[in-house]
Design brief:
single chain; about 300 residues; alpha/beta; Rossmann fold; Alpha-Beta Plaits; 2 domains; six-stranded mixed β-sheet; four-stranded antiparallel β-sheet; 11 helices; about 40% helix
Length: about 300
């Protein structure tokens, strides 16, 4: 588990992140979302023991990021994809990964097996001996992801993992991340790709130099937006709007063509009563759906609330 309490980092008079307090359970995909300069990368760098916090504490399992005796142990538990891949461009993909595997003290046979498996899964095995300097940005990004996994870390920190990737490659990486989760890894992701975060993250934290909100994407939406139900009827009589507005479980109602748009407190409990009432009125119900709000809707509402 990753545990942070009051984690803060300042650079001179600038506060990058303040009072960052949360727990990330094992075996999940956790997303950090926020605008540029919100402190996401700074937080990841502190948790990776690349920079020290100004104040506060954080533990990776039982190890303290502020304890010098624990730093190397933490680094061996973490696989990091930084903002810039930072590969040796005159070396091939295989030799890049082998070098980092040796750096982490991974035995030769285990290195060979790990590198082959990872490059194969990322579609790069056939080009393993080509100098990476000639690769596209997307291919370099995939090699950098492979490098983060060379020593089989328990925790994987990915800063914009699908940046520069085409749609097919991005899909492959998302599937790979979810497969790592199935294997028991804990993945922390910084991303601006909100639709991607919605697909793969169990929980997200929206940050803007502090934590604005933490939760599962759908739960965050339900906490911010009233739940709206659309009921399509074959025909809507002119008296229906006034009648249905008087029902105790309907807080707001409007008619849009042959759609009846309702706000109810608890759709799971109230929808059946609404439908029964409509049928008793002799009306024919064609479709029922609940308006859904995306993680993008949630993010924009929260960030706007903090002031851009």
């Amino acid at each position: 588990m990753i545990s942070c309490v009051g984690l803060t980092k300042t650079f001179g008079s600038i506060t990058a992140i303040q009072d960052f307090t949360l727990e990330i359970p094992d075996g999940c995909v956790f997303g950090l979302l926020g605008p540029n300069g919100a402190g996401k990368t700074t937080t990841m760098r502190m948790l990776s023991c690349l920079i020290q916090p100004t104040s506060g504490k954080a533990h990776i399992d039982s190890y303290d990021i502020g304890n010098k005796a624990d730093v190397q142990k933490i680094r061996r538990m973490i696989g990091l994809l930084p903002e810039v891949p930072g590969l040796y461009e005159t070396l091939g993909a295989y030799k890049n990964l082998d070098f980092y595997g040796q750096f982490y003290g991974v035995p030769k046979q285990r290195r060979e097996e790990s590198i082959k498996t990872t490059l194969t899964n990322l579609g790069l095995w056939d080009r393993r001996n080509e100098p990476v300097g000639g690769f596209s940005k997307g291919m370099k990004q995939k090699i950098a992801i492979a490098r983060a996994l060379t020593h089989d870390p328990k925790y994987i920190f990915l800063d914009e993992p699908t940046a520069s990737l085409d749609p097919a490659a991005a899909k492959l990486v998302r599937e790979y991340i979810l497969n790592l989760k199935k294997q028991g890894n804990t993945i922390l992701i910084n991303t601006h790709n909100l639709s991607e975060a919605e697909r793969i993250c169990d929980t997200v934290a929206v940050v803007k130099n502090k934590i604005v909100k933490v939760g599962r994407p759908k739960e965050l939406a339900r906490g911010l937006f009233a739940r709206t139900v659309s009921i399509t009827l074959q025909k809507i009589p002119s008296s229906l709007l006034a009648e249905i507005s008087s029902l105790r479980y309907v807080s707001e109602a409007q008619v849009n063509g042959n759609q009846l748009v309702l706000r109810v407190k608890d759709p799971e409990q109230d929808n059946p009563q609404v439908i029964s009432w409509l049928i008793q009125k002799g009306l024919q119900v064609q479709f029922v759906s609940e308006e859904e709000y995306s993680l993008e809707d949630v993010y924009l509402k929260l960030i706007e609330g903090e002031g851009r």
